[in-house]
Specification:
290 residues; Hypothetical protein af1432; 17 helices
């Protein structure tokens, strides 16, 4: 356990808030009285988010035959739950992507590649096992490592040392605790609470490194933990590459969830499609990918 993450957040003056539109969409998606037209009107107030929503709706990630040209059509075609996923994912990327740090060994494209892959894997596991709502699994997957971006922003030199240790073989969550005194999962929990995310989402963020969890017994926490373990097993690390990393044989519990996801190649393809659509430009985020 690290230092008090809530106190760390209180000291950060320029911590980006969850954009107001994404926060509103989070609430509306679970409100039975909200209509597709209501959500479309809220989304339309953010031009950048509207553009991304339409772009993602027409991307290979969804593969719809019909062309989506308005935000209302996107809400109707995708559904309110899916729109929530896109809005939160794209908003988080925008909120934290602006700051570049000199001599940074942490790769923000790799970070989002890892996060999106975990989100898509978690969503699929939730659908297959019915252990959690797929939209919750996607959101928790996108959010699960967000505490690392806080550490990178607040303690850049200490966090850089942690990443160097990770490149040399120390698990990053172990290295960051040693160099910064904070644990990214605890920061993610505190940040989720600050943004008023539902308790079950922030609990999944807090426990995504806990071993022995399963979807059947632990619900959303087990879904996200296994999704994260699967992505890490294949070397899709969070913000860094490891030269010539050797994969050990996949454990049975991860083999099961990989099968649920249609194989690692299929998972990667979907992740690339989402990242490229959300960003507007192709990005290299996984050195091992073709």
């Amino acid at each position: 356990m690290g230092n008090d993450a809530r106190q760390l957040l209180e000291r950060v003056e320029d911590l980006p808030p969850l954009p107001a539109v994404a926060a509103r969409v989070m609430t509306m998606a679970d409100d039975a009285n909200s209509s597709a037209l209501d959500m479309a009107q809220v989304l339309s107030s953010d031009q950048a988010l509207t553009a991304k929503l339409i772009r993602i709706s027409n991307s290979a990630y969804y593969g719809f035959a019909r062309k989506v040209s308005t935000v209302r059509e996107a809400v109707v075609v995708l559904g309110m739950k899916q729109v929530r996923q896109v809005a939160v994912g794209a908003s988080l990327m925008n909120s934290f992507n602006g700051r570049r740090i000199d001599d940074d060994v942490f790769d923000i494209d790799l970070f989002w590649g890892h996060s999106v892959a975990v989100a898509i894997a978690a969503e699929t596991i939730a659908k297959k096992t019915r252990a959690a709502r797929p939209e919750d699994a996607f959101t928790a997957g996108i959010l699960h490592d967000i505490g690392r971006l806080v550490l990178r922003q607040v303690m850049p030199h200490e966090f850089r040392s942690a990443v160097v240790m990770a490149i040399q073989g120390t698990p990053l969550h172990v290295a960051e605790l040693e160099t910064t005194g904070y644990a990214h999962d605890e920061i993610g929990l505190a940040l989720g609470e600050k943004w008023k995310f539902p308790t079950h989402l922030v609990d999944a963020v807090a426990h995504h490194h806990r071993e022995g969890l399963s979807p059947e017994h632990d619900g959303l926490e087990g879904v996200v933990a296994l999704a994260n373990a699967l992505v890490l097993h294949y070397g899709l690390y969070c913000g860094f590459d490891v030269e010539d990393a050797e994969l050990v044989p996949i454990p049975p519990e991860l083999d099961r969830v990989e099968t649920m996801c249609g194989g690692i190649d299929h998972l990667l393809d979907r992740s690339f499609a989402f990242i490229e659509s959300a960003s507007g430009t192709p990005q290299r985020w996984y050195a091992g990918a073709a």
